[in-house]
Design goal:
Helices cover 32% and strands 26% of the residues. By secondary structure, it is of the alpha/beta class. The longest helix has 31 residues.
Amino acid sequence: MVRIGVDVGGTFTDLILVDELTNQIHVHKVPSTLEDQSIGVINGIQKLCKNANVPMTDIDYVLHGTTVATNITIERNGAVVGMLTTKNYRDILHIARHKKTENFSIQQDLPWQANPLVLRRNRIPITEKLQAPDGRVKVPMNEEEVRQAVERLKKSEVDIIVVSFLFSFLNDEHEQRAKEIVKEMWPEVQCFTSSEIAPQMREYERFSTAAMNAYVAPRVSRYLSHLSSALDEAGVKGDLHIMQSSGGMATSEMVTEKPVTLLKSGPSGAVLATAWWGELEGVPNLISVDIGGTSADISVIPNNTPKIINPRDAEVNGYPVLVPMIDVEVIGAGGGSIAYIDAGGAFRVGPKSAGAHPGPACYGQGGENPCVTDANVILGRLDPEQFLGGDLQLHPELSFKAVEEKLCPKLNMSAEEAALGILKIINNFMALSIRAKSVSKGIDPREFALFAAGGAGPLHSVDLAETIGCNLVIVPNYPGISAATGLLVGDIKYDFIKSNISRLDNITDETIDSMNADLQDLEEQAYTQLIKDGIKPDDILIERIAECRYAGQGFELRASIPEGILTDQSIETIRQRFDESHEEEYGHHFPNNVVELITLRIVAIGKTPSLTLPKLESGNRINPEAAFMYERETVYEVNGEIKRFSTPRYDRSKLLAHDLIQGPAIIVQRDTTTSIPPHWQATVSDNGTLFVASKVTQGGAAESVEKYFSKVR
């Protein structure tokens, strides 16, 4: 079986090919083609297959992480959406929760008002009403109003229609009938209902999720259709699977029906790779730092388990979306982040990026602004002839010119001082984000290892680890394409949900029967879909989840449901597990408070082939001469003093298990460069993973690497 993982970033498209018959792994990077991501994807696959000597027709799976949906929300160029909604509720998308993004500012743009997903003139009220808490029809739907609304939206030339009625999560009868009328009158238009996309309580969040799904759907559908056709024309007959925000893969058909699940497709792959590598190497607690050319994706992963973000925090560019998302923070910090002096004279780096075109000044493609990559070139940490395996020749003189012209005169610094300043600023920016994801939530980053992912991750991770007090840095075999690697270890995963609002303190037999019936119905939907996707019954796993809250709380937390038919004892177990979740999330719980069940959720997992890394031969060498390439002057800051070191370069492909590299050193490979500063050292595991730890720090996470270091001391 041949599988290819393809992740499209803002600067580069990363690819990895695994040939399970020969146990060969090949990697490649090509510039992203943001005007049409599929061009870079096809070019990359063709070049990768040529390098690996694998015919395109032999590819069984193309596993894809994409930023298409995310870019639509950033660029605000989605579809013109028409909405049918309950009379007197057309302004829910405008009113929202009366929240401000900046509480004390009297002048600010609220994204849902400044750039609404559905223009007010295209939100048409329909007479209908359901009754809580059971969804009974209170006011029948006026079908003539629906027909008039469709005619009006036709004349307005909307691209797509979404139907969002009040309480449809309890009873979708009216929404489904309205959709039928839309399809009768306008068969060619795509139509979604909110109960299909997010059958959950909270009308604003449900309406926003349904509107977002409609907003991104046409372009996502066109992209996937175009990509499928391009793959077919290139001779690829294998299946196309797409990474979702939840960290699960889905067929292209499923994500076309529900494209809102792709809003964090891109960052999820690196998080999965981090969790997988941590489990492989026996390091349970990791902080993933995936630094690319445009952004840095940061996620805290305890016990090798990626966290799913709390629904109250699930949003994309200010718009709430009720879909499962891996808890990952995306910040504007990458190799292409531009350094500049702002109007107030402050030295800043990012979030604006030079991207792939024109890119940093050193690319020689017309870029004139100094970037983070330029700083690494000036300091000698990136060798011009080694970048991307020599495919892209860097121009150090252009890096010096950009820094000396744009920064040095205003800062009264040398080029090297300014370059170190760029790295300090960008590293501290990332450190602040890490602390926000860890320290502010009661997690001590000193007890975690830092996972260096992305093309720029291994260049920055040791400095970043020192900043946050972390003792151990893990550099995977293919850090520059970590997000693509994560696609190879992700299983197919779907969520099926049903609202079932019940108090757990006075549960009745009737309520338990209703919950069992709902769970059985959801499980049947899950099995049907996975079997349709080609998953064997023995490879299907079902996770049952109760989303609960204390009475009066605004949002729910997840509690796993015991196996088997629900009983009174099962309900008590759910209650206990919810208390444990509340304790973990907030640091306290209330054992005497009433708990409410709000939503039943089935997470259906279809197990797919994972990744197997070839074992390395044992080397047990210190600074191995066989891997030595050459020495070159490199600048590091030691105890506040700028120092130049004659620093050896090592070819990572020639390192063996248990080899020890003492800093300062630079380890070179095609997809990235690893910087090992003075007072740090690195060793190689049996799987080829680099472990980088301080020479002077003992204890904490550094103990995880002791078993490797002890073999070569």
